[in-house]
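Good morning N.,

You mentioned wanting to compare the apo and holo forms, so I went ahead and generated the holo version with pyridoxal-5'-phosphate. This is what I fed in:
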Amino acid sequence: MSTTIYADNAATTQVSHRVLQQMLPWLSQHYGNPSSIYGIGREARGAVEDARAQLAQALNAQPSEIFFTACGTESDNWAIKGVAHALAAKGKKHIITSAIEHHAVLHTCKALEKEGFTVTYLPVDRDGLVSVADVEKAITRETALVSIMFANNEIGTIQPVAEIGAACRSRGVPFHTDAVQAVGHLPIDVEALNIDLLSLSAHKFHGPKGVGALYIRKGCPFPATLLEGGGQERGRRAGTENVAGIVGMGAAIVEALEGLPEKTARVQAMRDRLIQALTKLPKTHLNGHPHRRLPGNCNISFEGVEGESLLLLLDNRDICVSSGSACTSGSLDPSHVLLAIGLPHEVAHGSLRLSLGDLNTPDQVEEIITGVTQVVERLRAMSPVWEKIKDN
Ligand code: PLP
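and this is what came out, ligand included:
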């Protein structure tokens, strides 16, 4: 049996056994192309449409408002570039977003700036919250789209989505939210929350990797066609559907929402135990909002410690976590999110993200607490700066 303690559920999650069982037949005996009109093609079409209905129901949307994509990144790109391009012809070339979005949103906005769009990057407060008043002030007659994430992937802060949506709705501006970290973990009702476009990704809620969706409200300025080709996804996103992946995403959302309040309470209790124990260490702080945060998210800065060293020493103990450095880009730049909430570079460098899920256990949490405490103490004992930091 694996002894790995996986505490990086914000990066990805394990495909659930039930989801896998539902996917397998669509990779073997039911191999038809959903566009084929004979029996096994019609079966595959039925499976794709069932999954569309499952996702629509989970979000309180209509099945015709759900479009399948290959991932959350694709959904974000399509929503933002698509609406921007659709409205540019009407002289609307302004986009509002926040400084703490995922790169799937930020880099898309940067690409649009190169095309002549202007982008307002709203700041956040120390807890990572966007101010609704700032959104209202930033909207102009040229604003094509507001894109503010539902919950942050690093610090877990949950934004006032309903209020931002209402502010956009009353001014006639479409509102997109990157809900990749929220779907399957928080109840989401696109009607009640005034959302016009929403991105999601299956692998964040025990579904397979490489499949996502974009919700597009009926009547919303329609994002331009993403992929030209066959008529799939009502001609907007051509390409033979990833049938098994789509079936898996539908099964995963159904499973994620079963008993959600109980699962949330259990995960939140483990998260709070982690936060309470780790913030007892000296010069150690919680990042993100104290209450408005994802149930499994714990992001902590340990002064006098390098996050990367912490991560590697925890890996030696078979504990998987994430650090606050953008190591994927090949640099060790501190995270733009931690800088945006006002952390100095050196503190941002000593940050760790632990993201728990419903497969974690209280015993694992105790092992994480012991592991992190010992590793932090060891690194601080070797650190040339710790003595000075400690006495300040
Ligand atoms: N948006 C957020 C907030 C994320 O956390 C992620 C992935 O970590 C993405 C978008 C990208 O999703 P995907 O990995 O499906 O492309």
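The chain has a mean pLDDT of 95.

Happy to go through it together on a call whenever suits you.

Best,
F.
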